[in-house]
Amino acid sequence: MAVLRLALAQYDFPVGAVAANTAKVRDLMAQAEAGGASLAVFPELTISGYPPEDLLLRPSFLAACQEAVQDLATHTNGMTAIVGFPHSQGEVYNAAAFMRGGEIVQITHKQILPNYGVFDDKRYFRPGRTSAIAVIQGVRVGYLVCEDIWQAEPAAAAAAAGAELIVVINASPWDEAKQLAREEVLAARAKETGCALVYLNLVGGQDEVVYDGGSLLVNADGSIAARAPAFVDALLWADFDPAERTLHARDWPVVSDTSREATLYAALVRGIRDYIDKNGFPGVLLGLSGGIDSALTLALAVDALGSDRVTAVMMPMRYTSQLSLDGARGQAEHLGVDYRVIGIEPVYEAFMTSLTPLFEGKRPDTTEENLQSRTRGVMLMALSNKHSRLLLATGNKSEMAVGYATLYGDMCGAYAPLKDVYKTEVYRLSRWRNQEQVRITGNEGEWAIPPPVIERPPSAELRDNQTDQDSLPAYDELDAILARFIEEEQSQAEIIAAGFDEHTVHRVVRLVLVNEFKRRQAAPGPRVTTRAFGRERRYPITSGWK
């Protein structure tokens, strides 16, 4: 029996862009046909984008998606395709349409609806009941939608119906643990069913979620036949040998660095680029303080958008060190961005002049420090409004977890690239980015982030000789406690039993719990861990649970 050739569209299909998504599918179908593919496969909810959220409550949106799928079917006279879309039949289903010969031959519905983490499928969809089988060039192909492969029953049903190959279309968001988990699940399903598996995943950033692609081919014995690179848009060609039940990739793209830091950095770059471009902003601006968080954010923004679309603003105060001034200017000039310096002292003093009569009898405290940050926030937002450049917030997950951030100050911004990145990871990413710069240029003296900025003690510079560790535990200790409490949901007693100081654990946990109100007002940012603040981790602001 001849091999079955597939074309797998690991591409971005933006939410709500029904017409553009449909046009992209038509173009890719034509490429697949020209390349000799017998089957073109597209991701989960290709037509609507994923997740469309409450757009699915609008009848006009559902009707547009249905019309788009019908139109695509008319372009399949010489092609067979599987396309994801929201299927409305009184109830709404997360569906895959099997189309060929100019018509929709069959529609299958997602059976397992995830309702955890970032997923909210049960709010919008009803579950399907059966696993679909189609015959393509004599090969019996089962096809499932995303979560269906994470449970044994849908794949088992497809195999029982005679499937030799199972195709799974996905919109599976990325986090640092996801790829290993996918491979383990797919290997298990292949061994259980005796079917080879094609796992096609969406790629691209959508608000707080990033999809990595990372598509997979798995042989019937559970071995991984091919891995697609993360965060790369590509039409992936594959051949299925039904006699051996094996899959073979044909010239898949390869990335040179698949390390943890490289993939995380790519996720953040993709998140920034897609958020800015999909929302139609010509560029971004950010406050460049001379500290490591804003320095890494600047490097990410330049890598995502190009230096001509990035503006960096240094806003010095009496407490700003020469190291900060030199580091900010040096990096801005090195990366070639538009760089501005606006001293905030006069504006801050004007605020203080107005407020001092009302502060009478009160000692200086964090109020005055926060006012400096809020002065910067006001000025950055004014520049953002005037120049139509989206403001990036530069805070990291460690700070957001314990509230070491100022509402309407350094929390100002429409997007926060480091929102889900712990401080210790900020250091690792910064060092990796500099190593990457050396690799690219071949010059050992090259850097993207000034080395003195990486090596200096972190400081908000809101008072003389201030460091972060005046207010917080060392970041290695803090982040270890936070990861156990947030990602692993460990109790304080469990964390203490693991060897952490009791007083420090109680203090850190208290800070996390009392600062929920700040996080509710924070800008969105890309989810890159298994427990991100925002749509994934939703704790009550008002709670008696300590």
TrEMBL record:
Gene3D superfamilies reported in the protein's UniProt record: Carbon-nitrogen hydrolase, HUPs
Query: What residues does the CN hydrolase domain cover?
Result: 4-242
Q: Provide this UniProt record's keywords sorted from A to Z.
A: ATP-binding, Ligase, NAD, Nucleotide-binding
Record: residues binding ATP: 287-294, 394
Please give the pathway this protein is involved in.
Cofactor biosynthesis; NAD(+) biosynthesis; NAD(+) from deamido-NAD(+) (L-Gln route): step 1/1
Which molecular function GO terms apply here?
NAD+ synthase (glutamine-hydrolyzing) activity
Chain residues that bind L-glutamine: 116, 172, 178
Where is the catalytic site? 44, 110, 146
Q: Which PROSITE patterns match?
A: CN_HYDROLASE (PS50263)
Residues that bind deamido-NAD(+): 370, 399, 518
Q: Which InterPro entries match?
A: C-N_Hydrolase, C-N_Hydrolase_sf, Gln-dep_NAD_synthase, NAD/GMP_synthase, NAD_synthase, Rossmann-like_a/b/a_fold
What EC numbers are recorded for this enzyme?
A: 6.3.5.1
Pfam families per the UniProt record, alphabetical: CN_hydrolase (PF00795), NAD_synthase (PF02540)
Record's SUPFAM superfamilies?
A: Adenine nucleotide alpha hydrolases-like (SSF52402), Carbon-nitrogen hydrolase (SSF56317)
Substrates-to-products reaction catalysed: deamido-NAD(+) + L-glutamine + ATP + H2O = L-glutamate + AMP + diphosphate + NAD(+) + H(+)
Family membership? Belongs to the NAD synthetase family. In the C-terminal section; belongs to the NAD synthetase family.
Q: What does this protein do?
A: Catalyzes the ATP-dependent amidation of deamido-NAD to form NAD. Uses L-glutamine as a nitrogen source.
Q: Which HAMAP family match?
A: NadE_glutamine_dep (MF_02090)
Q: What is this protein called?
A: Glutamine-dependent NAD(+) synthetase
Question: What organism does the record attribute this protein to?
Answer: Dyella mobilis
Its organism's taxonomic lineage begins at: Bacteria, Pseudomonadati, Pseudomonadota, Gammaproteobacteria, Lysobacterales
